């Protein structure tokens, strides 16, 4: 892939990308300075990818995903990593203009909810809590909405396994807050669930919940359902 070629083509998404770059990880030293080196690299990669994959173009959650990658790689390396990450996990249909994989993802998530957290699932149905209130944005941003220390631990698992593990991460997060979720109703529950990512989470405790829940057979089943085989 000729990164410089795609970087130097004007993209129709440049205005949207520029706006999103300005609000991405602004507390992180790399992206703190407006139009500084970090923001410029982030802008370049997003423009390049929108030109490289016009059928995807640019999806809002991609800005924070690339920002995390840029914390560890040079500009061109980060672009290559993004391309491989999307290809390996077949995320093209998650980020395309119709978000076409999202419906399948949420169907599989519902099935896992019924098996793993039936009480929370029933409570959500009773209170009309939809996935669009919380997990949709988590998937589209690959959990970069959470605090960075948790996000990086999630990415360790994500890279080791693949996208299938993220469904169980959603389950583990909800199970972590099970007492609060089951005790809240109405607008209080809606507000709590929609802001879960801002609350303090003990990473080791969360991953302990996850570890007790997953096994190779479960992951393999999700891979098949999500067409990751």
From TrEMBL:
It holds the Pfam family RabGAP-TBC. One of its GO terms (molecular function) is GTPase activator activity. It comes from the Eukaryota. It comes from Anncaliia algerae PRA339. SMART domains: TBC. This is Rab-GAP TBC domain-containing protein. Keywords: Membrane, Transmembrane, Transmembrane helix. Residues 1-162 form the Rab-GAP TBC domain. InterPro entries: Rab-GAP-TBC_dom (IPR000195), Rab-GAP_TBC_sf (IPR035969), Rab_GAP_TBC_domain (IPR050302). The chain crosses the membrane at residues 154-177. The keyword Membrane applies.
């Amino acid at each position: 892939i000729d990164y410089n070629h795609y970087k130097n083509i004007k993209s129709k998404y440049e205005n949207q990308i520029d706006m999103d770059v300005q609000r991405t990880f602004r507390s992180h030293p790399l992206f703190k300075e407006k139009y500084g080196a970090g923001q410029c690299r982030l802008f370049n990669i997003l423009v390049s990818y929108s030109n490289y994959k016009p059928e995807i173009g640019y999806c809002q959650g991609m800005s924070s995903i690339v920002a995390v990658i840029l914390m560890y790689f040079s500009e061109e390396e980060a672009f290559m990593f993004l391309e491989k990450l999307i290809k390996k996990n077949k995320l093209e249909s998650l980020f395309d203009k119709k978000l076409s994989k999202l419906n399948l993802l949420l169907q599989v998530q519902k099935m896992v909810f019924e098996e793993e957290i039936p009480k929370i699932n029933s409570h959500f149905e009773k209170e009309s809590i939809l996935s669009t209130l919380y997990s949709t944005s988590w998937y589209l941003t690959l959990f970069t909405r959470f605090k960075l220390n948790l996000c990086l631990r999630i990415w360790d698992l994500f890279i080791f396994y693949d996208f299938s593990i993220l469904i169980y991460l959603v389950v583990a997060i909800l199970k972590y807050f099970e007492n609060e979720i089951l005790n809240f109703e109405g607008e209080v529950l809606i507000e709590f669930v929609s802001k879960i990512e801002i609350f303090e989470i003990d990473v080791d405790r969360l991953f302990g919940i996850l570890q007790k829940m997953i096994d190779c057979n479960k992951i393999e089943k999700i891979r098949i359902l999500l067409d990751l085989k």
